[in-house]
TrEMBL record:
The lineage of its organism: Bacteria, Bacillati, Bacillota, Clostridia, Eubacteriales. It comes from Acetobacterium paludosum. One of its GO terms (molecular function) is S-adenosylmethionine-dependent methyltransferase activity. SUPFAM superfamilies: S-adenosyl-L-methionine-dependent methyltransferases. InterPro entries: Methyltransf_11, SAM-dependent_MTases_sf. Residues 56-150 form the Methyltransferase type domain. The keyword Methyltransferase applies. Keywords: Methyltransferase, Transferase. It holds the Pfam family Methyltransf_11. One of its GO terms (biological process) is methylation. PANTHER family: 2-METHOXY-6-POLYPRENYL-1,4-BENZOQUINOL METHYLASE, MITOCHONDRIAL, METHYLTRANSFERASE. This is Methyltransferase domain-containing protein.
Amino acid sequence: MELRNAEKLEDIRSYWNLRAPSFSKGNVEELNSESKKEWIQTITSFAPVPEYKKVLDIGCGPGFFSIMLAQAGYQVTAVDYTDNMLEEARKNAGNFGVEIEFLQMDAQNLTFDDGTFDFVISRNVTWNLEQPVKAYSEWLRVLRPNGRLLNNDGNYYYHYTDDFYNKAYSEKHQGHSHKVIDGVDTGVIDNIARELPLSKEMRPQWDCSILLGMGITDLSVKISSKEKAKVSDEEREIINKFQLFLVK
């Protein structure tokens, strides 16, 4: 099992290495948009500086959260497993004039000591993991007592498991899930996602159950994107994206 997970981890890293330049471009555009203000307002209202000053950005990608958090006065450490994402992140941080410690690290196997950080944040990472339960355990481990965690994620591949989601997804995308972004075939990650554990779970219900089982008692959820879908005579609400706010 460990060998299989390691192989899949490398496949995932290879894909995101290819996606890094175009992903970085989108992040920079977002950093220069109005959405940045909304993110900062959400983050600082949940984990205000200076009480929660030392932050870990997990799966930082090209540095979207890292840069805005550094600009807001946080002391930022950012980790990602993908070489090219870190290269883009360092370049972007330099262009925005902020100092951030970027480290290559697996989100499921953090090398930090227990209780190192006041605040942990992540965006669009958990769905992409081979061992999400272990990841949550690690993220909580590196948080100090009363530290806070904000995880932003979504049901990006639940259509591979749920028949209704699949029919609604196929109708919306006219039966085509694969596309090409700046020459990179997204079918690669689509095929990997078929076997990832969180493609088989309804979220954020799964996340809440796991976190409560880990002893978390202060947990709240915000559904940030949902839609009504109708297949034949059945109509359901589909959860696309969500945010998890928790205090250790």
